[in-house]
Design goal:
The structure holds three protein chains of three kinds. By secondary structure, chain A is an all-alpha fold. Chain A is about 80% helix and about 0% strand. Chain A has six helices and no strands. The longest helix of chain A is centred in the last third of the chain and has 41 residues, at about 165-205. Chain B has four domains: about 1-30 and about 320-375, no CATH class; about 40-310, no CATH class; about 425-435 and about 660-700, no CATH class; about 455-655, Rossmann fold. In chain B, about 40% of the residues lie in helices and about 5% in strands. Chain B is built from 27 helices and eight strands. The radius of gyration of chain B is 67 Å and the shape is elongated. In chain C, helix 3 (about 70-85) links the parallel strand 1 and strand 2. Chain C is an alpha/beta fold. In chain C, helix 1 (about 5-25) packs across helix 10. Chain C has helices at about 5-25, 35-50, 70-85, 100-115, 135-140, 145-150, 165-175, 185-195, 210, 215-245, and strands at about 55-60, 95-100, 130, 150-160, 180, 200. Chain C has a six-stranded parallel beta sheet with strand order 3-2-1-4-5-6, sandwiched between helices. The longest helix of chain C has 29 residues, at about 215-245. Classes of the chains: A mainly alpha, B mainly alpha, C alpha/beta. At the A-C interface, helix 2, helix 4 and helix 6 of A face helix 1, helix 3, helix 4, strand 3 and helix 5 of C.
């Protein structure tokens, strides 16, 4: 793509982004035309996100199809994925997305798998908590583990019985940690993240970063 | 303006100047009797002692006149007879010791008077065909005057006498290079008057070079030389800066030597002398006696020339090799630089048989000469290598060798069983499953909390105040992985809404949201008594936060189809449902409940819907991890979130407060045991970390 | 004017002006950033991966392209540009994974531009940027397969993650690969701190462009963030002081 082409895309991205951004600060609804245009741009964004989902699914299919075709490492898993991909697609197209069959597939395949992964996450986090002091021996890691321990103590029944005399103290401690210390620290992190997000977005709007490519 | 160029330094001077303004050399020849001008004289230069008159052109005119008139007859023998044996000619006595470091050539400029006879003698003669450029001018004139036979004795007498006078004057003022020279004794000067009129050769620059076989300083003729017979005719005045001892009269003793002119003396190599004197000049009757005596020597020289052959270059034949002073001779390169290769005669040389030079002789043979291996004549110095350089060279050699060496693949990392992970997994699984056997073991289970969260009661009150005629919007924005936690917590609120007969409308911004919503609502409906729960699925809202804002502004434009609609209701007309008949805006819903595990989703709903939610309360049902970040929205003065329900303990408390069957208590024991195990694991991890730190510290 | 959020506009203009000013100043006003272990180790890990013929995996997360969590993914795209250039000529170039289709398309465009800039456009493959799954945990479930089949030795997680980010990082740690993880979500940051070898906390995610020296504009962006941060800190302290003195604004 020549120099002029990507400048056009940069201009389109910049204009649309700035238009939507300014709509948060300037009440464009006072100007009906501007309001309608902004609404139109946002609807296009919604449509493009949905189309992007389809493109992503097509990308999944193509990647695994290539792996099966080239019989590269792990191709049997790709073959199984493709088979069930097509079966689910066909069932959904034939019976509809809210049919009983699809509901059964969701309730007895997808839901348990993802719930299991969430359980694995819990185990991984427990293990990480066990190892953290042996991997990183610094003050922050000690504070991290200690905080996790006291919040768990005050979150429910465990080592300290709920009806015991100490539970109220730990419950209050847990509330203080969660609602004061953690909230304050999280706010600070959020402010920094917000600054970074704003500057990153501005770089895209000003065409300094061009994630849509240079050609 | 007339200008004159200095003969020594080529500087431009005024025509009337007598001395050069740059170097001080005489620009006009001195006439006998004139006072020498100028503060300094350049050493070795032919000065006015040569006898050049101030009016230089007069003698030239006289020469010309004499050339036209017959030359006076002279008796060369008379000049020789005037000189008594044992006595050196007067002019020879006038010779000055030349500066050894200076080599003069014949003076440039006007021709002295004593040269007239030579000029006249050589006039009719044709000049030599090969006029060598290095032949001095004065000698060239000699050749030109070979036919001239008239030498004016009277003129000679005049300039000889003028020379005598001038000599006396110059004796007190010597040139720079001739300071150490002493004038000849007066007796020589007196004798000089008797000398023949013919003048000796004026060598000028050549006169300062001593002969090779004579040490420097001996510029006077020896007695032997004097006895050999110096032609007095040619010894009529000392030349300026004359450094020669004198002429060598005995031509028979020294072959090829010219009198008192070492430069004219050829070397033994047979090189031709620089100056070639035509024999015809010598045959002239007007020549001085001393010159007559060198005639045999000249003849001998000519014979040697013929014997030299045609191979000698003309330039070399015309030139007499210069006699180098001893100090210069010592600087000559030694024989080491001379080539070692002796060239064979041409006839013996092989004929080249190949290549572009085929058929030629004298072609350098590559093999026997160039390519012949031979040891260097210069012995190579020993390479000095330091220890460090040895070490570096060895290192480099090892590196190079290691590159070519085949590297064996390192042993693969041994497969280690994740024992720790298995143990942790086993412990947690047992902890979760164990409560199901509590009753068998007689364990009552974990007690319910006696301290409730301060958020529960306001929430209960809020839901109790929701209008019954307005539906409740419940947003299912979590993934199936969080269904285990959030389904339990959200059930409390949904059951409470159902118990108040408030219709529920579900929505989700995730593709898996509608199935999750259907699953939970169906479960609640099956557990509830009566006709079940009234609910409707709006389905999937595509577009993320943008779509949320669109929905908040105009719900009917954002959602066009539903999910698992009841019979009689088509997908294209979900808003025709009786539940939604009065809903036009977000604020038309009685309450908005957002069930999510992510803080970002919760914040998006809180911020995007605020301008359009109106008086309808916003309730957040959150995972325990999202609470800290959403609480500020709940506790701020400008409250954006009206109710928060977080975690299983809060759900248990909510159910107890609303009189629900504590379904959350079913997982309370497992929750408790699992928490306890995780706390134990964390404590074990702390202990393990501290012990390892102590051990590492002890081991250093 | 009625309805105009002047304060918001002012902040926006401040950001733009500071960005332009710092870009214009460039290196004439030198600045030194604090060390971030993750980025320092990342460069070494990239070199190791290239030399050993192994692959680098960059994950842009499961966030949507148009969602509020897309900023971290854009920060990940900046790092992707640099990684792609480094690995473009290696035996196994970088592979990018996302949980969103639109983000996968953007990643493909970024890869193509990076390869073109490195003069290795012929080595670009569209499937180098791929979507692993539409849901977060289905995305995380594909991570071990990708790590195994592509022989990944360096695992970089920079984007929008939920709890599945910790799972993805844990999979990388089990394979003993280099793991550097960062996201904008607070919860996920806490999980990644416990699991990942090189976690990025807070806005360190957005500092990748400056620390990897992608362009002067990225260094200028970091300086803008620091400047505005100090302004906000000053405002908070002033507000706190006024509140303590009983002065309400």
């Amino acid at each position: 793509m020549k120099l002029g082409s990507y400048l056009i895309w940069a201009a389109v991205a910049a204009v649309s982004g700035l238009f939507v951004l300014l709509g948060y600060f300037i009440p464009v609804n006072l100007i009906p035309v501007a309001f309608q245009l902004r609404l139109l741009i946002m609807q296009w964004a919604v449509l493009l996100a949905a189309v992007g989902l389809f493109v992503g699914l097509a990308n999944i299919f193509l990647v695994h199809w290539t792996k099966v075709g080239e019989q590269s490492e792990g191709w049997p898993y790709s073959a199984i994925l493709l088979i069930f991909f097509l079966i689910t697609l066909m069932v959904g197209l034939v019976f509809g997305p809210d049919s009983e069959t699809v509901r059964l597939l969701f309730n007895y395949v997808q839901l348990p798998v993802e719930a299991t992964l969430s359980g694995i996450l819990a185990i991984s986090l427990a293990l990480a908590g066990f190892r953290i002091l042996s991997y990183r021996r610094d003050f922050i890691s000690v504070v991290f583990v200690g905080t996790a321990f006291f919040v768990l103590i005050g979150s429910g029944p465990g080592l300290i019985p709920n009806d015991g005399p100490g539970y109220e103290f730990f419950a209050g401690l847990r509330n203080w940690i969660a609602q004061v210390a953690a909230a304050g620290g999280a706010r600070g992190i959020l402010i920094g993240v917000a600054l970074g997000s704003v500057v990153t977005g501005l770089r895209v709007l000003l065409a300094i970063d061009r994630p849509y490519g240079d050609g | 303006m007339a200008e004159i160029r200095c003969p020594m330094c080529s500087a431009v001077n005024h025509a009337d100047a007598e001395e050069c303004v740059e170097c001080g050399a005489r620009l006009t020849p001195l006439i006998a009797g004139d006072e020498p001008t100028g503060e300094s004289r350049e050493s070795g230069l032919a000065a006015s002692a040569e006898g050049q008159t101030a009016e230089g052109e007069d003698w030239l005119a006289r020469i010309r006149r004499d050339a036209e008139s017959p030359p006076p007859e002279e008796e060369p023998e008379e000049a020789a007879e005037d000189i008594e044996p044992g006595e050196s000619p007067d002019w020879l006595g006038q010779l000055r010791q030349a500066d050894q470091a200076y080599e003069e050539g014949p003076p440039t400029g006007d021709q002295p008077d004593w040269m007239d006879e030579f000029v006249a003698a050589g006039d009719e003669e044709t000049p030599e065909a090969d006029q060598d450029e290095e032949v001095p001018e004065w000698l060239a004139r000699i050749r030109e005057r070979t036919q001239s036979k008239e030498i004016s004795t009277e003129i000679d007498d005049d300039w000889i006498s003028s020379l005598r006078d001038e000599e006396a004057q110059l004796s007190a003022e010597r040139p720079a290079g001739l300071e150490e020279l002493e004038p000849a004794p007066e007796e020589d000067q007196e004798e000089e008057a008797d000398l023949p009129q013919s003048a000796p050769l004026d060598l000028g620059a050549l006169s300062s070079v001593p002969p090779p076989d004579r040490p420097s300083g001996e510029w006077r003729l020896t007695d032997e030389e004097a006895e050999a017979g110096v032609d007095a005719e040619f010894a009529t005045g000392p030349p300026a800066d004359f450094s020669e001892e004198g002429f060598r009269e005995d031509a028979g003793e020294v072959q090829g030597e010219l009198p008192h002119v070492p430069a004219l003396i050829p070397e033994d190599t047979g090189e031709k002398p620089i100056i070639e004197i035509d024999e015809k000049v010598l045959d002239s009757a007007e020549l001085p006696g001393w010159l007559e005596q060198i005639k045999p020597a000249l003849a001998a020289m000519e014979e040697e020339e013929a014997a030299f052959g045609e191979d000698q270059e003309d330039d070399e034949d015309d030139l007499a090799p210069a006699t180098l002073p001893s100090w210069l001779e010592a600087m000559r390169p030694v024989d080491a630089f001379r080539p070692e290769i002796d060239l064979e005669p041409e006839d013996d040389q092989p004929v080249e048989s190949a290549g572009p030079l085929a058929g030629l002789r004298g072609v350098l043979m590559a093999e026997p000469i160039v390519a012949k291996p031979r040891t260097s004549s210069v012995s190579a110095s020993r390479l000095e290598v330091t220890e460090r350089q040895y070490a570096q060279a060895e290192l480099l050699q090892r590196l190079v060798e290691s590159e070519s060496r085949e590297v064996r693949a390192g042993p693969e990392k041994p497969f280690t069983l994740p024992i720790t992970r298995w143990i942790v997994t086993l412990v947690l699984v047992v902890a979760i499953l164990l409560p199901y056997g509590f009753e068998q073991f007689g364990f009552q289970g974990f007690a319910t909390p006696n301290v409730q969260s301060r958020d529960v009661a306001p929430l209960v009150s809020l839901v109790n105040n929701v209008p019954v005629e307005q539906p409740a919007l419940v947003v299912f924005d979590y993934t199936p992985g969080y269904s285990g936690e959030l389904d339990t917590v959200a059930r409390s609120v949904l059951v409470h809404l159902n118990n108040r007969n408030i219709p529920i409308v579900t929505l989700s911004t995730r593709v898996t949201g509608p199935p999750l919503a259907e699953r939970l609502m169906r479960a609640i409906s099956e557990e509830s008594a009566g006709d079940g729960i009234q609910y409707l699925h709006l389905g999937f809202l595509s577009g993320g936060p943008t779509a949320i804002q669109l929905f908040a502004v105009s719900p009917r434009d954002a959602i066009l189809t539903g999910f698992r609609l009841p019979e009689g209701l088509s997908r294209q007309n979900v808003w025709a449902s009786p539940i939604l008949q009065d809903v036009r805006r977000l604020s038309d819903f009685g309450v908005v409940v957002v069930i999510t595990a992510g803080t970002e989703t919760a914040r998006t709903w809180a911020e995007q819907t605020q301008p359009w939610i109106g008086e309808s309360p916003l309730v957040m049902v959150l995972s325990a991890g999202a609470e800290p970040l959403i609480r500020p929205y709940y506790e701020s003065l400008n409250q954006q979130v009206d109710g928060v329900l977080t975690g299983l303990p809060s759900a248990v408390a909510y159910q107890q407060n609303t009189g629900q069957q504590a379904a959350a208590l079913q997982s309370w024991d497992s929750f408790g045991s699992g928490l306890m195990m995780v706390e134990i694991i964390l404590l074990a991890g702390i202990g393990y970390g501290v012990s390892r730190w102590l051990l590492d510290r002890r081991s250093g | 004017m009625i309805g105009i959020n002047l304060l918001g506009l002012l902040v926006l203009v401040l950001f733009v002006v500071l960005l332009i000013v710092f870009i214009a100043i460039g290196d004439r006003w030198p600045v030194s950033f604090r060390k971030i272990r993750g980025y320092e180790a990342l460069l070494k890990a990239l070199e190791r991966a290239v030399e050993s013929g192994e692959r680098v995996h960059l994950s842009l997360g499961t966030g949507s392209l148009i969602g509020t969590d897309s900023a971290a993914a854009f920060a990940g795209l900046v790092v992707l540009t640099e990684i792609a250039k480094v690995t473009s000529l290696s035996d196994r170039p970088v592979v990018v994974s996302t949980g969103d289709g639109a983000m996968a398309i953007v990643a493909q465009d970024t890869l193509r531009s990076a390869y073109r800039e490195a003069g290795a456009l012929d080595r670009y493959e569209p499937i180098s940027a791929r979507m692993l799954g539409p849901t977060p945990f289905s995305y995380a479930a594909n991570i071990p397969i990708l790590l195994e089949s592509e022989r990944v030795s360096a695992n970089v997680l920079l984007g929008a993650f939920g709890a599945e980010g910790a799972l993805a990082a844990d999979f990388g740690e089990r394979k003993q690969t280099f793991v550097m993880a960062g996201t904008e979500d607070i919860q996920s940051q806490a999980l990644l701190y416990a699991v990942a070898e090189y976690p990025l906390i807070g806005e360190e995610v957005f500092a990748g462009g400056a620390y990897l020296d992608v362009s002067p504009a990225h260094r200028a962006s970091l300086r803008v963030q620091d400047t505005v941060r100090f302004i906000i800190v000053g405002g908070i302290l002033i507000g706190l002081l006024l509140n303590l003195l009983g002065i309400s604004l």
